[in-house]
Amino acid sequence: MLDTTRKITVCLSPALLPLHDIKNSIVVVIDIFRASTSMCYGIANGAEGIIPVAEVSTCAIYKDHGYLLAAERNGEVVDGFDFGNSPFSYVEEKVKGRTIVLTTTNGTKAIHLSREAKKVVIGSFLNLSILCDWLQKQKEDILLVCAGWKDNFNLEDTIFAGAVINKLKASHQKEDDASIAAETLYNCAQPDISTYLAESAHSRRLQNLGIQKDIDFCLQVDTLNVIPVLEGDRLVELKEY
């Protein structure tokens, strides 16, 4: 039976976050291509923590303190940093036992703008089911925050938000038109999400950089059983599922 006391809402862009009730919600930050995917993969591969920072200059402050520094802008690694936000940089042999300081064009900004939430967790297709199983057990309202692209709407984050809504439709009431639209988009894309997203603006940007493999990786479903959660200034693995 639908529990109409629990609401689920979608923020289609970080620019719209001031219109939403962040403080009384669990926020799921979504940046499918590629930050949230890489965060999930890095935590699954044993990273001690990931510190998301908004600016490249802030990331640089951590240099020479034993951290791995990851900085991406416009899809490319920023010169002078260890790596960007390709999931293939977050393999076990690189990140296990290490703390990563990360800044990206969209995802880390969305995290910072969501910090006043009751809890901030990270969503990707890789951890879709375990994330939804956990969300279904929570008593709070849910706000799905799409990182988008430079404050603009994008397809991949919205489709993922729709996938979450679809899995939670028995327990959470869609509260706004954005959540209805997200689920509708997901239902349209679901038979072949990869093909549906092939012409999306962000897919084309990554294809132009020669990293189709990153796109393919980010669209894998349920390969991980971890949920990154923001504790203080860093993302760590959620311990209670």
TrEMBL record:
Keywords: Hydrolase, Magnesium. GO terms for molecular function: 2-phosphosulfolactate phosphatase activity; magnesium ion binding; sulfopyruvate decarboxylase activity. Pfam families: 2-ph_phosp. The keyword Mitochondrion does not apply. The keyword Magnesium applies. Signal peptide: none annotated. Its EC number is 3.1.3.71. Its cofactor is Mg(2+). InterPro entries: ComB-like, ComB-like_sf. It catalyses: (2R)-O-phospho-3-sulfolactate + H2O = (2R)-3-sulfolactate + phosphate. HAMAP family: ComB (MF_00490). This is Probable 2-phosphosulfolactate phosphatase. The lineage of its organism: Bacteria, Pseudomonadati, Bacteroidota, Sphingobacteriia, Sphingobacteriales.
